[in-house]
Structure formats: structure tokens, C-alpha cells
Amino acid sequence: MVDIITVETTSLGDRSYLVTDGAVAAVIDPQRDIDRLLDLAADRGVTITHVFETHVHNDYVTGGYQLARETGAAYHMHADDEVDFERVGLLDGDVVRVGAIRFTALHTAGHTPNHLSYVAHADGRDIAVFTGGSMLYGTVGRTDLISRAMADELTRRQHRSVQRLADLLADDVEVMPTHGFGSFCSSAVVEADDTSTIGDEREANVALTVTDEDAFVERLLGGLDAYPRYYVHMAPRNKLGPDPIDLSPPVDADPTEIRLRIHAGEWVVDLRERTLYAADFLHGTVNVEISDSFSTYLGWLVPWNVPVTLVGDKPDDIAAAQRQLVRIGIDRPAAAAAGGVDAYGADGDRGRYEIVDFSALVRARDDGRAPVVLDVRRDDEWAEGRIADAIHVPVHRLERQIAHVPDGEVWVHCQSGFRASIAASLLARAGRTPVLIDDDYERATELGLTGSRVA
């Protein structure tokens, strides 16, 4: 009996897998905090003997290297991937036995040139294919992360790779991707179910329903938007063999040290919920509330190698943020402080700003006011429709382009309020006067504030 346990990393929109026959186990695409996988194996009384990477990852620091070192497992990846450590190189068609399970490597280039998928065979049949960033639910992994120059060719190879998987495998084979659950490594945003099969993908996957290669390339590349800028640091780190993580508590910082770090230009990140932050914050901090999107947006926004200090209400929030950050290579916070703003900002310069909803914007306009409305959504979201007379600076460009935002009070919104809260704190940090629109963008549409799709 083969058991496949999915390990979700919702903060990055990724999945890892532990596959076991009840005695030994393989792990596919482990995240860097490998304690989760070690605990799973221990709970089930199985030994991890093999670790498989589908590709050199661009969106997180792998845990594969350390997991193999700690367990003595064989570490598998494509033979042509240039890495600075010993591993078992695989090529298309190679077979690896893990107890009663047979894994066959299939070269499925596209997301990366050397991408591999792994077909798991047991009990006389193919039971699952671990597709990494190749075949995702309804879509495929994006093909522009290696380089823009290679994107066209990699997109064509991605199309052929997904079609090859569909040609080789039966309808009932489970599809087990790594990306696609909110990951920016996915080429499109899709409403994906928890599970899928090859048969499901024949009906729904864009690489199988758009059969003309040129049309597929045009559609895929035309839909790609920005991805987090920390991605550029991930593959080089993974090729070196990442260091073990250290999740011990950061050093404590008192209010004086917090102020010194702010004045030095470091990032002091307040993890509190955005309404609490807006009501009372320490000037110079940045609000990225602890949530599933925390590491993605902090990693996207913070200048690389700038020290990060974490502040918030509870030590558990600090620990949760720290765990998310090690996955993207921010290994140690410079310092931390819990206890809320009264603890870490007692002697500091405190501020507040207003929170409203889209109804308030309607009332302001009806009263003859014309506040600056700043939309910090992505370019593709802006192209779908926008509030009349709004200006647009995506949140990941705001700090560099804040001078483009007109003077005066700035009413800032996004799709749900999360990104707008980050933007509001960045505006306040720059000495501006934000008003946070903490509301769902659908309300703006319902209230008649928005226009239609832009041609």
C-alpha cells in the first residue's frame, strides 16, 4: 500500500510530498524547513531513503540538500544541473526503486531546461506523476524565470512536455505538482481543486486544450506579469547547497535599538493586523501583517541584504514570520520585539492613519472632494479594470516610484486590503498621508466606481 502525504507551504503556494510504502520513503521537492518532513516520517515509522528535486527552484531555498545530509538519503536531480555538491544525477528514462515503489524520471523541460517529472509505479500500475513546475492544475509553470531570451524556446518545450505526459500516462494517474497553489511560479491564476488526474488535465490544462504551439506561446507569454524580485537569489543559493536553518529566537531589541535601526535605514517590520497598525504605529516601520502572503511580499519589497527586524504582538508571530523568511533565504532577523507597539515603540514617534471602505470613497466624491486614489495591484489586474481617475503604482514598485504619487492625502487600495496596507505604511514611512481602503475590490465594482476591461 503506497501512501502519498502532501505537505502544503501555503505562504509560497507550493507543495512537497512524502511517498512511502510503509517502510521507506521518498520526498519530492522539500521546502527548507525540513523538520516538518522529519516529523511526518517519524510519526509513520518510516525511513527517508531518497530525495528527488524536479528542478533547481527559483521561488524558495530547497531543503533537499540538508534533508539528504541529515538522513543519508540519496539526493536526485537532473544530471546536467550544475551544482557544487555530490548528488545522483538522473536522465530521461532512469528508474529509481524506493522499496516497493518505482520512480521513473521524465525530462519535462520548460519551467527550467533540465526539469524532471517523476512517475511513481506500484502494485502493477502508474499511480502518480510528480510534475514540479511542468503540468500544473489547469496551467503550467512560467517559462521566463531563467531569462527573457530563453522564454520563447522554453515555452515551446513546456508545451511539448505537458503533451508528452498526457500521451504517456493513463487518465487515472494522479497529478502532483509543486507549484500552482498561489505560487508566482505558475503562469496563470487558476481556481484549482485539491487533486487532479491526467484525465482531468486533458479537459482543462491550457497546454492540452490549446494544441497549436504558436498560439500557446502567444497566450502564455502574453499573460505573464511581474514575479517577486527575491527569485533571482534562489537558484544560485540552491546550486551551492544551502546551509541548515536556525529557527532559534532572534536577539531582543528594546525601543532604543528599534529607533536606531530605523534611523540607519534598516527595515523594521510590524507584523500586527493592519487595522491595529493603522490605529497606532511607530514611524519608520513597515506593516506586513503575518499571513500566508507575508514572506512573498516582504521578500519582494525589502532590498536584498538589508537587515530586517521583526516586531509584533506575540512571540509566536515572530516565530511564524521567521519560519516563512528562512524559506526564501532571509536566514536570521537582525532582532525582534514582541509585546505590541507599547513595548517596542514606547519612546518613539507614534502615528496613525484613517481606514475606510469603498463606500467612503463614493461619499467623498459625492461631496465634491477629489482625493488621490492609488491602486497598488499588479499590471494585469489594473488592465482588467480600474477606478476612474485612479493612479497606478504596483506595490512592488511603490518605494522606488513614490515621488510619482501626487501630494496630499492618498487613498490606497488593492484587491482585498493586504497589499494596500503595506503601501499605506510605505507612504507613511516616506512622510506622506495615507488613507487605507480596507475593502474587497468587488465592492468598488458594485458601487459603480470601476471601468470595464481596457483594450
In short:
With 455 residues, the protein is of the alpha/beta class. It has helices at residues 35-44, 64-71, 151-168, 198-204, 206-209, 213-222, 234-240, 255-263, 274-279, 294-301, 315-326, 341-344, 358-366, 379-384, 395-401, 418-429, 441-446; strands at 3-9, 14-20, 24-28, 47-52, 74-78, 88-90, 95-98, 101-107, 116-122, 125-132, 174-177, 267-270, 281-282, 286-287, 308-311, 335-337, 350-351, 354-356, 372-375, 391-392, 409-413, 433-437.
**Residue share in helix:** 25-40%
**Computed Rg:** 24 Å
Give the integer mean of the pLDDT values. Answer: 94
- The first-to-last residue Cα distance is 54 Å
Strand order of the largest sheet: 1-2-3-4-5-6
Name the shape in a single word. Answer: globular
- Beta-strand content: 15-25%
Tally the helices.
Answer: 17
Helix and strand composition category: alpha/beta
Give the tally of β-strands: 22
- Quick one: biggest sheet? 6 strands, mixed
Low-confidence stretches: none
